[in-house]
Amino acid sequence: MNIKTIDFLGKRQWAYIFSSLLLLVSIGSLATQGLKMGIDFTGGTLVEVAYQNAADLTVMRAALADEGFGDAMVQHFGSSRDVLIRLKPDETVSSAELSAQVVAAINKKTAEPAELRRVEFVGPQVGDELAEDGGLAMLYSMFGVLIYIAWRFEYKFALGSVAALIHDVIITLGFFSLFGLEFDLTVLAALLAVIGYSLNDTIVVFDRIRDNFRLLRQVGSEEVMNTSLNETLSRTLMTSFTTILVLIALAVLGGEIIHNFSVALLVGILIGTYSSIFVASPIVLALGITQKDLMVPVKEGTDVDDLP
Amino acid sequence: MQNRFPLWKNLLILIVFLIGFIYALPNLFGDDPSVQVSFSNVSTVETAQVQQIEELVKQAGMTIKEVETGNGNILIRFNDTNDQLKAADLLRDRLGNDATVALNLAPATPGWLRAFGASPMYLGLDLRGGVHFMLEVDMDAAVKQAEERYNDDVRSALRDAKIRYQSVSQETGYIRVKLRDEEDTNAAVAVLDKDFSTLNIERPNVENELWLKITEAEQKEVKKFALAQNITTLRNRVNELGVAEPVIQQQGNNRIVVQLPGIQDTTRAKDILGTTATLEYRLVDVEHDVQKALQGRPPVGSRIYYEKNGNPILLDRRIIVTGDQIVDASSGLDQNNSPSVFVTLNGIGAKKMGKVTSENIGRPMAVVFVEYKVKTREVNGEKVRTKEKVEKVISVATIRDAFSKRFQTTGLDSTTEARNLALLLRAGALAAPVDIVEERTVGPSLGQDNIDQGMRSVMVGFVLVLLFMAAYYRVFGLVANLALGFNLVVIVAILSMLQATLTMPGIAGIVLTIGMAVDANVLIFERIREEIKNGNTPQSSIYAGYEKAFGTIFDANITTLLVALVLFGFGTGPVKGFAVTLSIGILSSMFTAILGTRMVINWIYGSRRVEKLSI
């Protein structure tokens, strides 16, 4: 082996400190600030309008207040010509009339009529259900992963990868909480995709660790894992790099609606790449993985031989 | 021989590519703005009709691109939206009530492609613009309405059996029957037990009183019926609105999803979908005095209603006909130029109306407009939603002579109200009130923006990855790029074949797949590099690289697929779209990145002596 090997596991206490710090900040922010939930989860009404010229928000706010929409949140969305109006879910007006009333109210005062771009109304009950389904989806996917890896590898690997996943999810959520980004259904989807991606990374590393445990019999666990991490390092970085490339394209060019989605993926994949090296493997090591755990004859090799 | 595919494998890959290419192709042709005309009473369109419509449009100076017929529809394609909108307005005016005119974006897939059954991906509402509603059916109201019906039925059953009762009244959750004595009570139990198997008869600790409760099974049945009936009615209403390709689906036990692509006037759509408005025809009680009724108890057979101007009026409790018995309705102006609705009754309704009007010439009859409205009130800081039955008398007219099947109703405020009421009467009443619990409307301009932005980010992301791969892995990178292009074609082809709905998050899923698809190739190529570094020959390095990387790729992708499936199972709307493209992307990337690249690498390096690999 002529490439320089990096002693990842030797420096694991630094990784522990770094991860603990990130987790602490994330959990702290989630506990104090919470997440800025989108209307998908809270319920409420959202109206997006567009103008030819820059829109004056003060005029619009006043116009809405005049019509009894005093608690409406009005803000620019993407550009100064696009405006987003949010209304709390507990309006006494029926949903059917709400968006029309809002547009009528602002059209009374603004210089040009607004073009209605988008209306979203989510009843409070539906919001609760969506939140519940999202939480369940997260739990089930983690559980599925746990079982699959325990079956294909070993339970210590399963615990290591799920710990890394929880790490990734908490830190991504923490990022959203800390920077006050809105958490909606698309961000939830992104988070689940992060779980998938981070797992992908971790499994590639684990796969190599398993191979090397069988190959390098005279070497200690820590060294085997270090070698494996080094061998897969260029792949880990390459794949993350290409994925991050397209995600940057998506975040910059994809438009406002999926902006937060792209940001969640970007953050999640950065963290996921880090965790597959610095979190998943050290935990497996800490759980006391030995050669013996993997010596059970597992037959993957035979059933894939005839495939390319 | 190492690194050579048997012929069948090469052919298989090439055939998949060819099929993928054909089915992905329709997506390049875009859409034609078009107008879809369908007739409610005919299933096949006649050539004369088509010619007549074609003439109409041409005379008005619009250029038609193509006219097609099929499925009882006439589809007229135009070159631009201007002509399309003008033609739609024109046809709506000229064709009258029997025809439904809807705007549509028809795929401009050439005929030879359509012969393969190839059609473009179905664009979601966020890309083409439109409205998505989720409606919740008020099941409590459905049961309450059933109780109301039983209330009347029980009364007439007792009357028919000549059992004298003190009162039959509807309480919350049961119907209370008060009788005079033990004997009557027993007789009533016997009659009710025989006639109403769907009611549980309870004898509370009150003398000579019976409580009738609808059985669990029947309640379930009532709810099921209400949902099914509402879906039918909504479908009728949507058809009346003139929407091409609407989606009306049951979701869960009490919800209905309605998707109307390309609709512009969302307020009207909401009004039409959500309203429970219907008409009732009742005789006016002329024997009793309204003022007295207002002060004391109204007479047994009558109830107090209010006219539009607020005047109270006494109407007979018994309904002559209800909206259910109306089979057709159209709006127009009467002799005095006031908006009115022309109504046609079905056989039963017509018979009853004929009987009542012939027996009551000279007596006034009232038309009651019935609607359920949702009100939100604040009770102890909590919002409570209540349904209110709003009944107003829209017209009172003296019966001049007997009529039965067809007649007109006046007293409507505007032509719009008349038009909407006619539409609602035609489409039928909702069996139970509905509530909009979710709405997502995307304007057409935003839809187009989303498509543009989505496509641009796919392209830019794609090109960036191509450049990077070519720079880093040289010849092998170029091969991986080929596979990536192939992968994109296959994803689009599968989405088109399945007619899956492409949404904005779906596009994001494709973008993400592009990023992740190279992963398999990176894994393989890194392995090959390692093998070379370990001193293996180029040929055996290629072989071992593919061989050893496969298990890893398989495990990694299966777990991602697992997550995608969970996403699909739990997701709604945007999440589902993302999960679909992600799953398809994972599967197709495994095929293209492993088999596709291997084939090309074999062509380049296989079956010959190679000194050095360009990797």
UniProtKB/TrEMBL annotation, chain A:
<dbReference type="GO" id="GO:0065002">
    <property type="term" value="P:intracellular protein transmembrane transport"/>
</dbReference>
<dbReference type="GO" id="GO:0006605">
    <property type="term" value="P:protein targeting"/>
</dbReference>
<dbReference type="Pfam" id="PF07549">
    <property type="entry name" value="Sec_GG"/>
</dbReference>
<dbReference type="InterPro" id="IPR055344">
    <property type="entry name" value="SecD_SecF_C_bact"/>
</dbReference>
<feature type="transmembrane region" description="Helical">
    <location>
        <begin position="158"/>
        <end position="179"/>
    </location>
</feature>
<dbReference type="GO" id="GO:0005886">
    <property type="term" value="C:plasma membrane"/>
</dbReference>
<keyword id="KW-1133">Transmembrane helix</keyword>
<feature type="transmembrane region" description="Helical">
    <location>
        <begin position="14"/>
        <end position="32"/>
    </location>
</feature>
<comment type="function">
    <text>Part of the Sec protein translocase complex. Interacts with the SecYEG preprotein conducting channel. SecDF uses the proton motive force (PMF) to complete protein translocation after the ATP-dependent function of SecA.</text>
</comment>
<feature type="transmembrane region" description="Helical">
    <location>
        <begin position="264"/>
        <end position="289"/>
    </location>
</feature>
<dbReference type="Pfam" id="PF02355">
    <property type="entry name" value="SecD_SecF_C"/>
</dbReference>
<feature type="transmembrane region" description="Helical">
    <location>
        <begin position="134"/>
        <end position="151"/>
    </location>
</feature>
<feature type="domain" description="Protein export membrane protein SecD/SecF C-terminal">
    <location>
        <begin position="103"/>
        <end position="287"/>
    </location>
</feature>
<keyword id="KW-0813">Transport</keyword>
<keyword id="KW-0472">Membrane</keyword>
<keyword id="KW-1003">Cell membrane</keyword>
<dbReference type="InterPro" id="IPR005665">
    <property type="entry name" value="SecF_bac"/>
</dbReference>
<dbReference type="GO" id="GO:0043952">
    <property type="term" value="P:protein transport by the Sec complex"/>
</dbReference>
<comment type="subunit">
    <text>Forms a complex with SecD. Part of the essential Sec protein translocation apparatus which comprises SecA, SecYEG and auxiliary proteins SecDF-YajC and YidC.</text>
</comment>
<keyword id="KW-0811">Translocation</keyword>
<dbReference type="InterPro" id="IPR022645">
    <property type="entry name" value="SecD/SecF_bac"/>
</dbReference>
<feature type="transmembrane region" description="Helical">
    <location>
        <begin position="237"/>
        <end position="258"/>
    </location>
</feature>
Automatic annotation (TrEMBL), chain B:
<comment type="function">
    <text>Part of the Sec protein translocase complex. Interacts with the SecYEG preprotein conducting channel. SecDF uses the proton motive force (PMF) to complete protein translocation after the ATP-dependent function of SecA.</text>
</comment>
<dbReference type="InterPro" id="IPR005791">
    <property type="entry name" value="SecD"/>
</dbReference>
<dbReference type="Pfam" id="PF07549">
    <property type="entry name" value="Sec_GG"/>
</dbReference>
<keyword id="KW-0812">Transmembrane</keyword>
<comment type="subunit">
    <text>Forms a complex with SecF. Part of the essential Sec protein translocation apparatus which comprises SecA, SecYEG and auxiliary proteins SecDF-YajC and YidC.</text>
</comment>
<dbReference type="InterPro" id="IPR022813">
    <property type="entry name" value="SecD/SecF_arch_bac"/>
</dbReference>
<dbReference type="InterPro" id="IPR055344">
    <property type="entry name" value="SecD_SecF_C_bact"/>
</dbReference>
<dbReference type="Pfam" id="PF02355">
    <property type="entry name" value="SecD_SecF_C"/>
</dbReference>
<dbReference type="GO" id="GO:0043952">
    <property type="term" value="P:protein transport by the Sec complex"/>
</dbReference>
<dbReference type="Pfam" id="PF13721">
    <property type="entry name" value="SecD-TM1"/>
</dbReference>
<feature type="transmembrane region" description="Helical">
    <location>
        <begin position="454"/>
        <end position="473"/>
    </location>
</feature>
<feature type="transmembrane region" description="Helical">
    <location>
        <begin position="582"/>
        <end position="605"/>
    </location>
</feature>
<dbReference type="InterPro" id="IPR048634">
    <property type="entry name" value="SecD_SecF_C"/>
</dbReference>
<feature type="domain" description="Protein export membrane protein SecD/SecF C-terminal">
    <location>
        <begin position="435"/>
        <end position="600"/>
    </location>
</feature>
<keyword id="KW-0811">Translocation</keyword>
<dbReference type="GO" id="GO:0065002">
    <property type="term" value="P:intracellular protein transmembrane transport"/>
</dbReference>
<keyword id="KW-0813">Transport</keyword>
<feature type="transmembrane region" description="Helical">
    <location>
        <begin position="480"/>
        <end position="500"/>
    </location>
</feature>
<keyword id="KW-0472">Membrane</keyword>
<dbReference type="Pfam" id="PF21760">
    <property type="entry name" value="SecD_1st"/>
</dbReference>
<dbReference type="InterPro" id="IPR001036">
    <property type="entry name" value="Acrflvin-R"/>
</dbReference>
<dbReference type="InterPro" id="IPR022646">
    <property type="entry name" value="SecD/SecF_CS"/>
</dbReference>
